[in-house]
Design brief:
With 356 residues, this protein is an all-alpha fold. Helix content is 73%, strand content 0%. Helix 2 packs antiparallel against helix 8, helix 8 runs antiparallel to helix 10 and helix 12 packs across helix 13.
């Protein structure tokens, strides 16, 4: 498995710390602000377009986890044959041939056999995997960096695909503004994962297995890195899926609407009220102009007046009104003043609209 010493961890912190620390502080401040806003903002159902983004992230998580299974990893001949790194080449491949159909090595085995005859080549095999050792046309054990440069495109390919998935899930065309707000952070984390893997692979001491005396002591770095890569990508996708779900449903990370958005909402409300007032005016004109409807309205108000007159003449109502006026609970003067201001406000607003 992968082992990181203190020096490597300190180097990673020094290299990537200035890159991620300001973002972490910004997220912390945003989280504190969003908690205050989320208490006053009602929770809403998950938007349909966020479902599409979460489906993309779910597929990415599933593929990343599947990539960690041994079924999708290349064969490790040292694990398959339980051999030490010092095992003679003929013995190693004789054991491997016993595992092949017909007890015969396949063409790939024949191509690999002369290339891992030395201990250094076998250390590089455990560092970069069988594909690099088998197919690299210019790699030399005396120049181990050549193996790294040949393996670099293979190292970056999963991360490029991961960045494409993150980009699609946070694009404005699919996730709209709820998911697009996380786009920069998603890209930064995806690039960070690629940089960390490349740094660990390049900075690790590739000869560490040369001192292993038993098969159990071998560190199968290439296969362990595949597992950690898949888990890291799956975890990153799960984190962004949770962030998009929480922010799009107003549970966390609530962003207050801008002044333009608030003005747009207010204008829509005013436009709706204006439309209803215009419709009410049309209905009023129809009622006034139609003789039958006008008689019904007049009859309604005559009946309403008679009913209210009967109610006000009841003894209990009269005593209640008299008691309210006598005790000072109702200030008639204040009520009249409020009614006057209300009427003037309506008339004044109507005159302004008519002038416009």
């Amino acid at each position: 498995m992968i082992q990181l010493n203190l020096s490597t961890a300190k180097t990673l912190l020094i290299t990537l710390g200035p890159f991620f620390l300001p973002r972490l502080l910004a997220y912390y401040r945003s989280f504190r602000t969003s908690r205050a806003l989320s208490k006053s903002t009602p929770v809403r159902p998950l938007p349909t377009h966020i479902y599409r983004s979460l489906n993309i992230l779910f597929i990415s998580i599933l593929l990343a986890l599947l990539s960690t299974l041994p079924t999708f990893a290349p064969e490790n001949i040292f694990l398959a044959t339980s051999s030490r790194i010092q095992t003679p080449n003929d013995v190693l491949f004789h054991r491997l041939a016993l595992l092949r159909p017909g007890n015969t090595l396949d063409p790939t085995d024949e191509l690999l056999k002369p290339r891992i005859a030395s201990v250094d080549a076998r250390c590089l095999y455990l560092q970069y995997g069988p594909g690099v050792l088998t197919h690299c046309p210019f790699c030399l054990s005396a120049e181990p960096w050549t193996y790294f440069w040949y393996a670099l495109p293979t190292l970056l390919l999963p991360h490029i695909l991961h960045l494409l998935a993150l980009g699609a899930a946070t694009s404005s065309g699919i996730a709209r503004k709820e998911g697009n707000r996380w786009r920069n952070s998603a890209v930064m984390l995806g690039v960070g994962l690629a940089v960390v893997e490349c740094y660990i692979t390049g900075a690790r001491e590739w000869k560490v297995n040369a001192r292993a005396m038993r098969a159990e002591d071998l560190q199968h770095f290439y296969w362990g890195m595949k597992v950690w890569r898949g888990m890291g990508i799956a975890l990153a996708d799960a984190v962004f899926a949770g962030l998009m779900w929480a922010s799009s449903t107003n549970r966390m990370f609530v962003v207050p609407p801008t002044a333009g958005e608030r003005m747009e909402v207010a204008l829509k409300v005013l436009e709706g009220a204006r439309g209803r007032m215009a419709a009410l005016g049309i209905v009023r004109n129809v009622v006034v102009r139609d003789e039958g409807l006008r008689r019904k309205v007049e009859g309604y108000w005559r009946k309403e007046g008679a009913i209210m007159a009967e109610v006000l003449e009841e003894r209990d109502v009269v005593e209640g009104i008299r008691g309210a006026l006598g005790s000072g609970r109702i200030q008639v003067t204040q009520v009249e003043e409020d009614a006057r201001r209300y009427a003037e406000g309506i008339i004044g607003g109507t005159s302004v609209v008519q002038q416009q």
